């Protein structure tokens, strides 16, 4: 029965696929059939793979990855196991995933948003496109009735789509909040830095940069390496120290370097 099902699935995806399209047909009980074109690897979907067959290329199996040696069109088929009604897939390129689940099961979660969701006979045909797939379905059979009606199926599809849209809106809102908060922090830092640069008094960072030049630093890069401060911070401190006369700016052969000029009052008194 399993081999009959496998042959049926191969015929199904042959009818569904167009030229050059990558696809993986996944049946709820663990049968997987994959069609690939001009790729060098494939990440196996599911756990405990058995009865693995690869047509169209020699290959190596390393961990959960198949690596192909040759061939532009490769067909892969195998049996696997999906624990607790969970189907996960992560590939290094985009695929069209065809997921086949009995209609007397209940779809709980699908990501990304399905391209289509329809019933054919007693089976859900779920189509998802992307480089990843997450499907969660309940295997509990209903006590009455013969599965979902087309109206129920439409409602499920709408819920899946609206949940995906809501998740995207929430993600964008949180991202904007984080960006705004980060921008506010940066603005406060810049305002505080500008105020510090405007004064003639030397703060800890000014003294740290000056100390680096007193110990032998000659260039901006030297001071960044010695102080561990960000390059932009060191650059602004150098400009302040030059303006106040604590550093003297020199140019020689197109290179810019600095030497210590006057010292702070407390250094001159020691």
From TrEMBL:
GO terms for biological process: regulation of DNA-templated transcription. It holds the Pfam family HTH_IclR. Residues 178-205 form a coiled coil. GO terms for molecular function: DNA binding. Residues 205-247 form the HTH iclR-type domain. Keywords: Coiled coil, Membrane, Transmembrane, Transmembrane helix. The chain crosses the membrane at residues 153-174. This is Transcriptional regulator, TrmB.
